[in-house]
Structures are given as structure tokens and as C-alpha cells.
Design goal:
Helix 2 (23-42) runs antiparallel to helix 5 (83-112), helix 5 (83-112) packs antiparallel against helix 7 and helix 7 (164-190) runs antiparallel to helix 8. By secondary structure, the chain is α+β, with helices and mostly antiparallel strands. It starts with a helix and ends with a helix. It has helices spanning 2-20, 23-42, 49-55, 68-74, 83-112, 137-146, 164-190, 381-398, 424-436, 454-459, and strands at residues 128-132, 150-154, 157-162, 192-199, 203-204, 209-212, 224-235, 241-252, 257-263, 269-271, 274-290, 296-299, 301-303, 310-316, 324-329, 335-339, 345-350, 354-357, 360-377, 403-410, 413-420. The chain folds into four domains: 2-101, no CATH class; 114-163 and 401-459, Double Stranded RNA Binding Domain (2-Layer Sandwich), CATH 3.30.160; 189-281 and 372-391, no CATH class; 283-368, no CATH class. Strands 4, 6, 10, 11, 12, 18 and 19 form a seven-stranded antiparallel beta sheet that branches.
């Protein structure tokens, strides 16, 4: 058993971890995640079978292969909840974690260590180096401190560095991406989305679940309901819809109000981790009065038309239901069109008005609207938002240059050299300025990778 375990540990450390920490694998996984995310955006998610059969027929197939059967078999109708997409996220997160521990943390540890140069030939490896008079050492130390370098000294060797933030930045970026991935995975497993069409003045529980994760049961509310106190629409002077409004209350099982808020598009209601968005609307019913009868509320149903939206209902005008009229409307502005049994236009009435039809007076009391709510819970959202915030901080930190400067007093000369991981020209100018702040320096040779750069100024000193 021990031998098998040792073999597995050796395989894990020497084979599996290096493969996971490979930058090329991370790039491939990131491209795959991006590609499938795009497909999840382009292809409508969570629609009915009839929808996919109508829009992705077998003949002709989209791109020659993408039919509704392929789409459903692969899971492209719910990309973000498929096992293979979650596996990609987990594998990408594992790769980032391995890279962090195998590459980024050791690089940070190495950058934090004190690296003293003991031999002059070590300066030949630096892109920027020169020799100065040993008397300039004290002035250079003062200049290093002035430029916010952290200086370490041992015998005749000096090591100075600044910009450790730039080394920490990539680790923060990796940590933020892992946090985003964890939030996405947790949200897919525990989140849900429901859609409810609730008439004004009624109460409904969250029951029409459109999609949910395997662990979402605890998130779906069972101890409170949504009460629509009122739903209305504001229209522009031209008759176009300006905004939807829903006055909502969250009530418990005893009808006690727990929360109340008027929502509209882009202004949702949040309660116990569940968010209620204003998403749609409809006309639920019409309230009419026949002569002096009590007010009757009749349901209205949407009608199939080639363009626009129309709701209609039939109102009996005789007790035996042998005669009646049809009421049609297109919005909640209070205008209803009345047709008789033969389909002939009788009249157009508005809320509060009456019309004589079939020897009775029909009064339009009110049109009752329904609010369309999209109800969602995603426990991974705080993790994702925190990850994105941390990602922005990490990216900014990564732009900080990590600069290193070495000094060595040997053979009656002061050797100086330095390097940086980015902003090479800025670093060279900084080093030149520090040298120029000291007293006159004898001419020395400088090795620099670029021509016409500030390092040549050093060479002329």
C-alpha cells in the first residue's frame, strides 16, 4: 500500500502538477471556456423543445451539423449547467492553483530574498551596468533611499530593490480568477431562476422554476410569498410604454408583511438572497358591470396575431349564455373594443364608460394587469463580484515594476548594475539620474541591450 501511495505521490508531483501548471494548458482551457460561453450567449438557453425544433431543424442543419437533436444531446440549451462546462471551470481553477504554487509563489519568494553579488563578473550578465569611483557609494545609497529602494548591505556588497507589489500582483490575479470560478460553480449548483405572471391584487408562491442547480432546494423560498398590491404602466404622450411598475409585498404564511417595495426595470426587490426583477407584463382580466349587477371579473387571454399583442374575452349578455359580446384590448390604457356575435364593431369604451348592447348596459370598470416577475437566486454572485474587484486590483498591482540594483566595491572600483521586469527605459533613466546626482565619475563601459537608450549616457560618465 505504501509503495502504491508513494508511486502516486511521485506521479502527482513530477507529472500531473507540472502539466496542470503549464501556461499552455491554462490558455487552451481559457479559450475553451470563452468559446462555450459565447455559444451559451448566441444559442437561446432554457427554451422549450418546440422552440429548438422550430429554430434548429434537421434539414437544413445550421452550419451543416447543428440540429436540435445535437444541441439537446450536447447540452447547448443549458451550457452553464452542463457537467462538461463545470468540469472545464474546475480544471481551469486547478491549473491556476497549480501555477500559483509552482511558479508564482516561488518567484515571489525568490524576489523577496537578498541577492548579493560578490564577484565583478556577475555584473556582466546584467543588461545595464557600469563602474564608478568608490567615493560615490555614500551618495548612491542616499539616492537609492530617496527613490524608495529598500537597501540591504553585507560587507562590500549592496542589494537594493523596490516594486514588490508587482510581484504580488500576478498572485492576486490568479486568486481573483479562482474566486470567480468558485463563485460561478457554486452559483450553478445552488442557484435557481423562476418566472411568475401574477395578477394585480393577488398573492403567489415561487413555483414556476425555469432552471435550477442540483443543490438549489435550500434557496427556493417556501416560507414566504409575493403579493402584488398594484401593477401599472406609464405611457408616453405618443402611446408607447415608458416604464412598468409593480408594488410588491413579501408576506409570510400568515399574510404578515415582511418587506414592501415598488420595483421597475433595473430596480429589483431583494429579500433573503432572492432577487425579484420586473421582466414582463400581461392583462389578466377585465372587470365589467351589466346593468345594476355586481361587478364581474372575467379572465382575458392573449390572442395569436401576426404582430403586436392583443387580449380578449367573451362577456355573456343573457343568463342562458345564448348571446354575448367580445372585448378586445391591446394595453392597460383603459380602452376596449366591443364586437357582437357576428364580429361587427359595436363600440369602443374606456374605463368608467358604458355602452348599450343586446338591450343591456355594459360598463367597463377596470382592466386588471399582471406583472411578469423574474425571480432569481445566485449565492455565487458575492464571490464573483469580489473576484472581479480583486482582479482589477491585481491587474493594477501587476503594472508596478520590480526593479533591482546591485553595488560591489572591489579592485578599487564601485561596480553598479540593475535590471527590471518592465518599463526598461524608465528604469534606465532613473539609474542615470541617481548617478548624475553624485559627484563626477570617471568614464566606464556599460553593457546595454538597446541603442540610443539612457544606459549609453551612463557609459559616457
Amino acid at each position: 500500500m505504501t509503495s502504491t501511495f508513494d508511486q502516486f505521490r511521485t506521479f502527482f508531483k513530477k507529472v500531473l502538477v507540472p502539466v496542470l501548471a503549464d501556461l499552455r494548458l491554462a490558455i487552451v482551457l481559457l479559450l475553451a471556456i470563452a468559446l462555450f460561453s459565447i455559444s451559451g450567449t448566441v444559442i437561446e438557453q432554457g427554451q422549450s423543445l418546440e422552440f429548438y425544433q422550430a429554430n434548429y431543424p434537421e434539414d437544413p442543419a445550421l452550419f451543416g451539423f447543428l440540429t436540435w437533436k445535437v444541441l439537446l444531446a450536447v447540452g447547448l440549451d443549458h451550457v452553464y449547467r452542463t457537467w462538461w462546462f463545470l468540469s472545464l471551470l474546475i480544471l481551469f481553477g486547478t491549473s491556476l492553483t497549480a501555477c500559483t504554487f509552482m511558479r508564482q509563489l516561488p518567484a515571489l519568494k525568490a524576489a523577496r530574498s537578498w541577492k548579493f553579488y560578490k564577484k565583478p563578473r556577475q555584473f556582466e550578465k546584467l543588461a545595464l551596468s557600469t563602474t564608478l569611483d568608490p567615493d560615490q557609494k555614500a551618495s548612491l545609497l542616499t539616492a537609492l533611499h530617496k527613490n524608495r529602494y529598500k537597501v540591504f548591505e553585507e560587507d562590500q556588497s549592496i542589494y537594493a530593490r523596490k516594486g514588490m507589489t508587482g510581484r504580488i500582483g500576478p498572485i492576486v490575479v490568479h486568486a481573483s480568477m479562482i474566486l470567480i470560478l468558485l463563485g460561478s460553480i457554486w452559483g450553478s449548483l445552488t442557484g435557481f431562476m423562476a418566472q411568475e405572471m401574477i395578477p394585480s391584487g393577488t398573492t403567489a408562491k415561487v413555483s414556476n422554476i425555469v432552471k435550477s442547480g442540483p443543490l438549489s432546494r435550500a434557496q427556493i423560498p417556501t416560507d414566504w410569498s409575493v403579493q402584488v398590491n398594484r401593477f401599472w404602466i406609464d405611457y408616453t404622450p405618443e402611446g408607447q410604454i415608458d416604464q412598468f411598475y409593480s408594488d410588491l409585498s413579501i408576506v409570510d404564511e400568515d399574510k404578515h408583511e415582511l418587506d414592501r417595495q415598488t420595483i421597475h426595470v433595473n430596480q429589483p426587490l431583494k429579500h433573503q438572497g432572492v432577487t425579484l426583477y420586473q421582466a414582463d407584463w400581461s392583462i389578466a382580466a377585465v372587470r365589467v358591470q351589466l346593468n345594476n349587477s355586481p361587478v364581474l371579473q372575467l379572465p382575458m387571454a392573449p390572442l395569436q396575431v401576426s404582430s403586436g399583442r392583443i387580449w380578449g374575452t367573451w362577456v355573456p349578455t343573457k343568463p342562458d349564455l345564448s348571446a354575448g359580446v367580445t372585448l378586445l384590448t391591446t394595453d392597460l390604457q383603459g380602452t376596449v373594443v366591443v364586437y357582437d356575435e357576428s364580429g361587427k364593431l359595436v363600440s369602443t369604451v374606456r374605463t368608467g364608460m358604458s355602452v348599450d348592447v343586446n338591450e343591456i348596459s355594459l360598463k367597463l370598470v377596470e382592466l386588471v394587469g399582471s406583472t411578469g416577475l423574474q425571480i432569481k437566486a445566485d449565492p455565487g454572485i458575492p464571490w464573483i463580484y469580489s473576484g472581479f474587484g480583486l482582479l482589477m486590483i491585481g491587474v493594477i498591482m501587476s503594472y508596478v515594476s520590480h526593479s533591482q540594483i546591485w553595488l560591489l566595491t572591489a579592485d578599487d572600483q564601485l561596480y553598479i548594475g540593475g535590471r527590471t521586469n518592465r518599463a526598461q527605459l524608465t528604469f534606465e533613466r532613473e539609474l542615470v539620474e541617481m548617478i548624475e546626482q553624485t559627484s563626477a565619475v570617471p568614464q566606464a563601459d556599460v553593457a546595454s541591450p538597446t541603442e540610443d537608450s539612457p544606459s549609453q549616457e551612463v557609459a559616457k560618465l
